[in-house]
Amino acid sequence: MAYIPAGSTAQAPWALCVTPARAGWTYAGLRALNLSGETAEFATGDEEMLVVPLSGSCVVECDGERLELRGRESVFAGVTDFAYLPVRATARITGRGRFALPSAVAARRLPVRYGAAADVPVEVRGAGRSTRQVNNFCAPEVFECDRLMAVEVLTPGGNWSSYPPHKHDTPGEGEAVLEEIYYFEGGPGYQRVYGAPGRPIDVLAEVGCGDVVLVPHGYHGPSMAAPGYDLYYLNVLAGPEEKRSMAFRDDPRHAWIRSSWAGQPPDPRVPMTSAAGEATS
């Protein structure tokens, strides 16, 4: 079940519900809520979670804290603020819009916290037709969690991201073992996942709003935005390492691509959004 079409895992109150058990692995999960002013109440159980507005705004209540998330009009309109929810908590979300809840099975119980949009590092990565924007809102060095990591990637129409293809499945220097989820909006686009020797996996999926691709192992990429259609994805990563790391290893056949960027200018359409909530192109 590497490719999960939009709506196929709906389970009230969730419009999307990918638990670690449903994914067939140990740590990473993702849920999504569609709200029209009502309140969704739920327990986090053994998972730490983030509340990430994809569109709209909400109020998050947990552990006696009340956090107002300004959110955004859409994932292509700006960088959003977000909230952190700890394990073994009961949370309430009231709002209007669509909200993603990345999660990871965790041991430490950290406090409820607010992440400001203005504090999210916005990175332009790659060059030429490999240029994309990465919003590193929950990268290891940016926001503290026990195991959970998450970033957003925006790829202009006609460009490739998650490129060169890379993997996180072998312990050792320079590579962290991670389960990874791709959640998409915009598109149409295409996502590739393929295996390393002895560990087969073969996915080439057309993806659009609400679709998910799971990466239990193997090389993932490219993520291809069809010409004329911008592509967004939310990456959720978690694994067994005590120290959070997103370290990866490129497919050696395509690793040379990175050195080619030195002679190319970045795509002028990137960055596509800013932390101020303004589209830049």
TrEMBL record:
Keyword Disulfide bond: no
MF term (GO), any: glucuronate isomerase activity
Enzyme class: isomerase
GO annotation terms (biological process): inositol catabolic process
Cross-referenced Pfam families: KduI (PF04962)
Keyword annotations from UniProtKB, A to Z: Isomerase
Gene3D superfamilies, A to Z: Jelly Rolls (2.60.120.10)
Residue numbers spanned by region Disordered: 258-281
The name this protein goes by in its record: 5-deoxy-glucuronate isomerase
EC assignment: 5.3.1.30
Organism: Sphaerisporangium krabiense
Transmembrane segments: none
